[in-house]
Amino acid sequence: MAEKSFADALNEQIANEFAASQQYVGCAVYYDAETLPRLAAFFYRQAMEEREHAMMMVQYLLDVGEEVRIPDIKAQQTSFSDGVAPVKAALEQEKRVGEEIYALFELAREVKDYRAEQFMQWFVKEQVEEVALMSDLLNVVGRAEDNLLLAEDYIARENPGAEGSDPTAPPAAGMGG
Ligand SMILES: [Fe+2]
Ligand SMILES: [Fe+2]
Predict the structure, then answer these.
(1) Which one, of 114, 106, 93, 117, lies nearest residue 4 by Cα?
(2) Roughly what angle, to the nearest 10 degrees, separates helices 85-110 and 114-143?
(3) DSSP readout, the chain?
(4) Tens of pLDDT, residues 126-142
(5) CA 49 to ligand 1 center in whole angstroms
(6) Would you give the DSSP letter of residue 1?
(7) How far is the CA of 20 from the centre of ligand 1 (A)?
(8) Distance between Cα 127 and ligand 2 center (Å)
């Protein structure tokens, strides 16, 4: 039997998603200060997405009548050794979140919480996309290391990470879903 309830574990993940959001604001601020506005905009948008993930989890807990805890804000990194480092860190973060999501999925199975398992499915798919997105960006930024304007062009041209509305996405608290 699992020692932690799914609701407790999901509350922890809410903290992780908010932390991811804050870290992406940190990356965005770094690029903004370096006058790399496309990279900044990319991370500002990713920050919003992570916040939305947290709010989806909040809505889920509300829907199933569980307690919601809103975590403290922890300081995140805003200075980096070079322009590649934020993307490298972002890829590591997405991989780590992936592991956290799989652990939640596994826990839902273990405790036979079918609602929770179904809820987590969307996040499993989302993590595949986000890891792919960040590793693509790392390829581009790595190649453009000495001239990040090339990465700016790539983002302007390809608009990576832009998502149309996804009808399968869980509703987020406060979004009227
Ligand atoms: Fe996320
Ligand atoms: Fe993410």
Answers:
(1) 106
(2) 160
(3) --SS-HHHHHHHHHHHHHHHHHHHHHHHHHHHHTT-HHHHHHHHHHHHHHHHHHHHHHHHHHHTT----PPPP-------SSTTHHHHHHHHHHHHHHHHHHHHHHHHHHTT-HHHHHHHHHHHHHHHHHHHHHHHHHHHHHHTTT-THHHHHHHHHH-TT-----TTSPPPTTTT-
(4) 999 999 999 999 999 99
(5) 7
(6) -
(7) 7
(8) 6
| C-alpha of residue 65 to centroid of ligand 2, in Å | 26
Output the CA 152–ligand 1 centroid distance in Å.
24
Tell me how far apart the terminal alpha carbons of the chain are, to the nearest angstrom. Answer: 34
CA of 34 to the centre of ligand 2 (A): 23
- For the entire predicted model, the pTM comes to 0.94
17, 137, 152, 41: which is closest to 85 by C-alpha? 137
Q: Rounded to the nearest whole angstrom, what is the distance from the C-alpha of residue 101 to the centroid of ligand 1? A: 9
Q: With 80 as the cut, is the pLDDT of residue 40 above it?
A: yes
With 60 as the cut, is the pLDDT of residue 177 above it?
Answer: no
